[in-house]
Amino acid sequence: xxxxxxxxxxxxxxxxxxxxxxxxxxxxxxxxxxxxxxxxxxxxxxxxxxxxxxxxxxxxxxxxxxxxxxxxxxxxxxxxxxxxxxxxxxxxxxxxxxxxxx
Length: 102
Known about the structure:
This protein is mainly alpha-helical. It has helices at 2-11, 26-39, 48-62, 90-101. The longest helix is centred in the middle third of the chain and has 15 residues, at 48-62. The radius of gyration is 44 Å and the shape is elongated.
């Protein structure tokens, strides 16, 4: 009991802050937000001005006469690679044998 009596005695003379006990009013908060939303809509929200601008840009893009970009084609080259197993090495083998023998 002693610690509780001391605490009550210390806080008894201090006036409480009025905003601490103030309850929130959801209707006032909603109206406040609704006013701010009418002035500045949320990002991504469709507005009349935004829709008109998007439609104008879409029309410009659809009437453009440019052809789509196509990268230049590479010239066709014949592949002359031959796998090492397919190559004829008889001449090389004969030369190596001749050098080793004599």
